[in-house]
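User: I'm writing a short methods note and want a consistent example. For ABC transporter ATP-binding protein, I'll paste the sequence; you return only the structure tokens, no commentary, since I'll be parsing the reply automatically.
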Amino acid sequence: MADRSLEIDAISKIYGKVTALRHMSFDVRAGELFGFVGSNGAGKTTAMRIVLGVLASDSGEVRWDGSPITAETRRTIGYMPEERGLYPKMKVGEQLTYLARLHGLPAAEARRAATVWTERLGIAARLDDEVQKLSLGNQQRVQLAAALVHDPKILVLDEPFSGLDPVAVDVMSQVLRAKAAEGVPVVFSSHQLDLVERLCDRVGIVQKGRMVTCGTVGELRGGGPERLLVDAPQAPDGWADDLPGVTVLGHDGGRTELALGEGADDQTVLKAALATGPVHEFARRRPSLTELFRNVVTADHEDAAQQAKGAAA
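Assistant:
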């Protein structure tokens, strides 16, 4: 395992009859942006709270730099909760300075850090404003500043892009990339899968408390059968149904998406398409992260349904 990595090793958490986490394992490496995605209730926030020590796992271990994580290590984590944790009537500058001092920074250094991060995040003019008087987007920027103000060695962010406008998304993305470039492991959850796909080095998809799949975006998108997009406007419905190894995934007008399995040949597909008339597009296509996520969740629901049916029988 690479040095300075955050390791989540087989952690489980059970609440009565509900299993929130099932032997979940993954790691976030130094200088890496790791996307942690899953449906609501999949276990993402529970896992993050265990990393922070807010919750204790029933089994498994969290390690930093190869050693079990301690209270002292947790002081070096920058955390942004999904439910924002700011004091609404406290002024922005005072609040950031206070939070930096809680993490051990001297007063002068804490004030300086608050100024630096509000400038960097575009809210320097709001230092003397109460948080409750800011727009939701600016409150979000303050919350990120709160996670960064003590110069954390690890960043754990729960839905940091929720509710942000495109300009704020760009600002936050730049900051996270910059922290990763400094060697900080950055893990964040998000339902904005197009953003995760664009920003992250690796992605883990979580479903029902377990890590279903994990890898680089390229690895995840490259898995499964090869896909072809064929635009043959004069092709009749069913023109590719009998091609060996070919599965028709969708048909919209003259555009047909195909999956090529074992024994399929793209040249045979092209020949069949040309036999129907002109072909305007013939291209390999990789599924988006959104499509992969949908397929994972759908497959998991189908497996659960089959298991329930088998148990009932």
